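fyi for ur records
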Amino acid sequence: MLADLHLCAALTRARTGDQGAWSDWDTARSIVDRALPKGFVGLQTRVSRPLVDVYAVMCAVDLGDPDEAQRRAHALDPASIPSTERRGRHYVELARSADLEGAREATLHLLARAEATSPDTVRYSPVAQDMVTRLSHEAPASIRAEAVDLARRIGVLDL
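which gave:
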């Protein structure tokens, strides 16, 4: 639970643009490395080694650093994330990173992966809904039909 508190603090700080978020994240990583056996997943918090890595990606995205998010995500196998909801959320965060870079095709691909992994995660995520809505209106013609289809599936189509 202590690691979970530090992860939440890190994310909260990142959302305010505070680079000190990495200090809280490092503390959580240290606690998990020291206290949890490999493969352990907390029953209530779902804290695990992969979840700490997911939070690193989330912090980097919230700090507006897509390069750091990509670097952190590169070694993280999404299949290692024990919760489908958290795995879907990870894909949404990767889509946010791609969106920060203006990579619309990658954003759409990652949102589709998120929806295939955990449909409700995309359907009820305001940030995912916003990205899908924007893509359905502004994406290049070559991918707009896919964006519109995804918008229909998650219930945000307002065309």
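The CA atoms of residues 108 and 147 lie 7 Å apart. thats all i got for now
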